[in-house]
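Posting for a labmate who doesn't have an account.
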Amino acid sequence: MIVRLFNNFTVINLFALNEELYSLAERFISYIQLEKRYSGHTCTAYRNDHLQFFDYTTASFGSTPVGDITHIMIRSWLARLMEDTMTAKSVNRKISSLKSFFKFCVRQGLLKQSPMMKVVAPKISRRLPGFIDEKGMQAVEDNRSPVSLTTAHIFSDDLEGMTHRLIFEIFYQTGIRLSELISLQEFRVDKSNLTIKVMGKGGKERVIPISPALSERINTYIDEKRSRLEDFEPGALLVHPHSGRRLYAKYVYLTVRRYLTEHQITTFRKKSPHLLRHTFATHLTNNGADLKAVKDLLGHASLASTQIYTHTTIEQLKKVYQQAHPKA
């Protein structure tokens, strides 16, 4: 017997009671991991979503074969999540997870149709993405603290400072995701063609152009890394400046947040690596980049995901209109 705490109430999880669902869920996870090549993070999130849902149905409705799960049961679970103040965005993520699972069941011939067809996702109030203004990013690129009255540098000259500076420059000049940054390999940097190959979501590879200055900084970093560290993870582009091991997500997240906060580079509340990705895309669209090109650079599957970055362009058009039109 396994007792799991779920959404502030205790669920007794008897695997034998609903063994079919749990084994089916594991088959699905193996499918998306091995065949669909979903990331480990996505697989873990989907597994947790399914276990939470099956725990709920087992506790509320007893042992339920997959063919007997109805849209009413699913709506009941979603209502409980909303009662527990889960955001609409998080609920939609769980709906997407269940949709994929039941679609898999239909393909396996276990269901004639998915019960998710009668489940409506809650509307999400779309927030405009935050970004750092060009002045703030210029200060980072110049290694000059915007809050210092002296010529104090943001990054130190040792290997740690070089690593942190390169984190910022790669994020801002390529717009890659955190998971993509920490998985970068040295051989994926093409110095002659000034490009970098990134392995994105679903194992999809994309090529992103980089500036000569960034290429040179990467070369310098690699040389310094090899001369200053006795041992480091072979092949990894960015490594921990002391241990030599590949950077991990929390280290990068805390590093970005610390610099953005200490040097007051932005007043935006959520200071994270993703903010630099938003900044990359926003600055491109503000300077006239084609939206489809931005989509390809970001690795978005749909143009709809990229359209959120047009908001600042529209605001700029409004300013131009107000400043220049005689009737504005």
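Reply:
Got it, the structure tokens are right above this. Residues 141 and 169 are 7 Å apart (CA to CA).
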